[in-house]
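G., before I forget:
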Amino acid sequence: MIQTVAELLFQGATLGVLYGMIGAGLALTFGILKVVNLAHGVFITIGAFIAIWLTSLMPTVPLALIIVATTVLCALLGAALQYAVIERAMTFRDPSVPMMVTFGVSVIFTNALAQFAGADLRSLGVGSIAQKSLSVGPFNFGLFPLLTLIFVAVVFIAVDATIRKTRFGREVRALSDRPDIAALMGVRVRLVHAQVAALAAALAGVAGVLLAMRASVSPFSGGENLMIAFEVVVLGRLGSTKGALLAGIFLGIVQIVSLRFDSNAGLLYVHLSFILILVFWAASGKLK
Amino acid sequence: MSQLIDRRSFLASSCAVAAAGVFAPSIARGAAKTIKIGYMGSLSGSRANFGQTEAWNIEKIKKHVAQGIMVNGQRYNVEILVRDSQSEAKTSAAIGAELMLRERCNLILAQDVESAVVNGEIADTRGFPMISTMSPLESWFFPRGGAPGKPFPYTFHFFSTADGVLQSYVSMLNQLATNKVAGSMFLDNPAGRAIMDKNRGWPHTLAQNGYAEIAAGPFQFSTNDFSNQVAMFRDGKAEILSGFLYANHFVPLWNQILQSGMKPKAVAMVATFLFPSSVAALKDHGSGMLTEVWWTPDFPFKSSLTGQSSAELAQEWEAGSGQQWTQPLGYGHALWEVGLAALAKAKDPMDAGSLRDAIASLSVDTVVGKVDFTNGPFPSTAQTQVVGGQWNASKGKYPYQLDIVENSTSPTIKTTATVRPISYE
């Protein structure tokens, strides 16, 4: 019994950190740029497809390098998109303008991906490490999920440190709090915006790679991932990366435990628990 | 085009064409009769791997009928209209209506069972003969409301039966020394629900043959974690992993199985390992996977169109495409064999009733074996053979090869290896 519970919690946590990762980029753009980036889901898919494409081009290159290359490419794409498109949409006072624009971008990218890469589901093979396990007493833990857990923890600590400790982080926080005053103090607004967008896209790319290694992605998985990202961001109290991680872990555990009792539920209870919490918050006045 | 056609020369040439039509001798006009064959297949989308060899097959057939075909001493031109169902029911309905109601094709060939099921009603009520394949007879007959003793007016289907597929799996398992405990799980889609049917499907076959089932039940397509199923199978000490799902779900499942320390002796997953790409996706762990086999280059049959043996057909594909053969290659070819044989047999191939009668009484030896519509297990069907296969590491050009290891229902197809448990060296 205790063995089952421990393993369920472990599986839930490893799935959960992946969900946290999926939401992290959206938390950044929402918290700092105040943009609801509906193209976030498709960025995750693009990250996965870039990694799959790179590995098929260069099968001998180690995975770590593939992840780095994917992250860089996604960051460039995110920055370019911010600079060329979203920044302009942000000049409108109406927050629905950037929302519409990013929605359009996501439709274009999804269909372009389906056109050029095909509509098939794909996954990223990581070799025999995917099947190794560690035995601690009576417990059996998959080595690869464990590495994912550690990797995501490191990424989150690094992002948190960047936002709290560096000059870039100070500028970001200043912009987030009072953009007008930050601009008066010499913060280059457009540059910082592009940097934040790059960071968010890079996080989305990493999430995509992890997702493709764990399960599989198709050009149309964007919507599904965007949904999870939203739930993670809202439960993580809008814009906090740390909150996103905790919310992700919560949703991951909910999923694994609910599947234990109803294996055909899919993500039903994940969405259900999100709504329940939202309703509870609304009823207790916490949403104001 | 270097020069656009102007209005005057267009008028002149269309008058010439019209005049030729009016004044040409009647025998020449008779020779210009064209049979239109409409083709529906899953060339892209989720079932694209079933259609991977189709474009190649169709090109081959187009060359074969380039000079037309002879029926009852008369030459007919053949026009082939190819439409992609994109593995979607909605698209299937659209292309079916187009091929029948707009193009008024004389014969419809459906490589995708969904296209055949979606369009069957129109074909039957409006009188368009249709032949389909590539999916078990039950999956075509029952969803269309088929009843014993009542043939469909214009639609026909040939393939093995789902029951035959399950029998061949159990007969492979019977050859292995296991504790006879099988874990089972099924993707929650129409095919999965049919296979998990308690009275007709896999649970029934297992129980009948003395296997204990640890049933994890159905799961949703969006599922990305199988820890609970794995825990159930491990706690129940299952030595056999069985059910129905596609390769994209099997990869994470297999990773979690091995992470849990389980070492299943056999994997008997319906449909999962039909294609070499699904086995190759497991990298070094693909050897030993079992699959149902509808056709391989080792089948002792010849094409009625080209005289090629199964092996020669596969070789030609591999040389032309640079890719390993897949099972639909044989059935894709056989679909045209059956269609053209029916046209050749019809009194008047342009007449729907006459063509329907030809199909209903057709028996033809194809590259997948005998296709005989006179004595199928259900009305309007012809049953082909199915045997059991196992993927083994190959020393050749491709990482894995498919060996035939079970032929209890079709002894004319020789086995090429004996079934063995999965090894974990």
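Chain B has two domains: 33-160+298-383, 163-293+394-406. Residues 20-30 of chain B have pLDDT under 50 and may be disordered.

More on Monday.
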